[in-house]
Design goal:
It is built from eleven helices and no strands. With 258 residues, the protein is an all-alpha fold.
Length: 258
């Protein structure tokens, strides 16, 4: 177990070093959520005045949505790193080393989880500076970050699976664009569920993004709904475990193909 943890730590450290060498990429990863937060927050702020919206401030409502969308947006590019390592031959060289096969693949998910955590905290702080309130306190903020990390793990593992199976950058780009916008607008990211058309409400109830948002908003409320938090949070955890398992199985298939 100690050796396995050490190998995961070493492989993750390697991925993080490569990430830090790209400061422009780190900055760009924050540009989009900042635009969502301040542009949409200003544009739709009067939506909170609609009867039945359920939130006194649109910014309070929007922050969890932006955190969740950012986690998905950044995680969907995880497969690009897999494709790059396949093309450079790095992945195949690791396969002949004593490093655990799980550590090779899990390092990308762990790296994404760490970067999602940092990104989420920055967005939460920016929202607070802009006037957002978090009545759920520190515990609510922690649950929001955990929910975003779990959702990021789901889509990071999905992207890794696509990268191992298809091995084309264009497919990863297309998958990211194809999934992000529909999943975002078929959720409660920008509009309260009670004000959506009935068919969108139905779709949203099966949308993992919505599970993360419902979990986060319930945790950040003055009176947290632990039924929603544990229920939707449990679904997120289960889906994350399933997707990581699927990516591991796909990796074994890739290993047999070389």
């Amino acid at each position: 177990m100690t050796a396995f943890l050490a190998q995961n730590g070493w492989m993750t450290h390697r991925r993080l070093k490569a990430l830090v060498r790209q400061p422009a990429a780190l900055v760009m990863a924050l540009v989009q959520p900042v635009i969502w937060l301040f542009l949409f927050g200003s544009l739709f702020r009067k939506v909170a005045e609609l009867p039945g919206f359920g939130a006194t401030s649109y910014l309070d409502y929007l922050v969890p949505g932006v955190v969740v969308m950012s986690a998905v947006s950044s995680s969907m590019w995880s497969g690009m790193a897999i494709i790059e390592e396949i093309e450079r031959g790095t992945l195949n060289r690791f396969l002949v080393s004593p490093v655990s096969r799980a550590a090779i693949l899990n390092s990308g998910v762990i790296e994404q989880a760490l970067s999602t955590t940092v990104q989420s905290i920055i967005i939460i702080v920016l929202g607070w500076l802009a006037g957002a309130a978090y009545p759920g306190g520190f515990a609510g903020v922690v649950i929001l970050v955990v929910a975003s990390v779990l959702l990021g793990a789901v889509f990071s593992a999905l992207s890794n699976t696509a990268g191992l199976l298809i091995r084309q950058r264009e497919t990863i780009i297309g998958l990211s664009v194809f999934l992000l916008l529909p999943l975002t607008f078929l959720s409660s990211a920008f509009m309260a569920k009670t004000l959506m058309p009935p068919w969108i409400q139905t779709v949203a109830s099966y949308n993992p993004l919505n599970w993360a948002m419902d979990t986060s908003r319930s945790a950040l409320a003055a009176s947290p709904d632990w039924g929603v938090i544990l229920g939707h949070g449990g679904w997120l955890l289960g889906l994350a475990v399933l997707m990581v398992w699927l990516s591991t199985r796909t990796f074994r298939r890739y290993q047999k193909s070389i």
